[in-house]
Design goal:
359 residues; alpha+beta; Elongation Factor Tu (Ef-tu), domain 3
Amino acid sequence: MSCRRILLIVLTFTAAACGSHEPAGDAAASALPPTDVQTVTLEPRPVPRSSEFVATVRSLRSTTVQPQVDGFVRQIFVKAGDRVAAGAPLVQIDPDLPQATLNTTESQRAARQADLTLARQQLDRMQALLKAGAVSQSQLDEAEATHTAAEAQLKALDAQIRENQVELQYYRLVAPTSGVVGDIPVRPGDRVTPATPITTIDQPEGLEAYINVPLERATALKPGLTVELLDSDGGVIASNPITFVAPRADDATQTVLVKATLTRAPAGLRVMQYVRARLIWSREAALTVPVLAVNRVAGQHFVFVAEPSPQGFVARQKPVTLGEVIGEDYVVSGGLQSGQRVIVSNLQKIGDGVPVKPA
């Protein structure tokens, strides 16, 4: 082959290469059919800024049942979880001793009643004899004094009987209000005192969530902030505003107590149950991208954005700065703008500059 012909071929390839303005990668990719993808268009939306804590569910109307006397438990009429009405019997404490005291007092009253009847008869007789002049006034006065003393003794025994009857009632514990019976730590045969808690009576329709917030976040606390109770999967089961912020910190835990009254008790929620709680500090507009749209390479996060091109759309890989995860989305701190279309499907089939067809 002559030198002139070789030079002509080289010049021809050089001119062809210089006449093409499309990058080599994009030129190769443009020959591929576009990949079908799903996209989401970025728009600012309210994003909750929140923190998670552990809340304790308490009853607004919870009553602790304790005995007023010492004794041994003879019988328990209910079990934990039972719903009872006010006045329903709960526990019977052995009443033998106060019952014996009451029986003795009633026997004494019967004797005093007989004394009073005799004194009354004597007084009536003395009054009749005084009119007949058969006895002196001093004898009548003595009969009246005997009658008055017998009457006073009977009244004292009546008061003592009423006291014994009231005391006897203390040996049967009843529900002070209607509600649900809590745990019963005592058993038949146990000795109890006025300091022994027997059980609790809770009314589940009035519940509060108690949350202890660390002091470093306490300055942002105020009534009206939203508290969301979460189930084990992170779903919201109740959402209510803060109704109380403690004016003082707990010196033992260095936390501030806040309360949120539950307007509706979620199904299955129990008094004294621990539950996840999310306290929402604010709701500010921000861009978010789905978690599934994000790739992480060498510690840097990337997303693919569908950008217009003369032939349609191409995928462009964009580095992004991300914030916290809210639900199934990342909060975008930088790298993306409102209106961009982020690709969320077929990410394993595309690369930078690959033609795509947004659905």
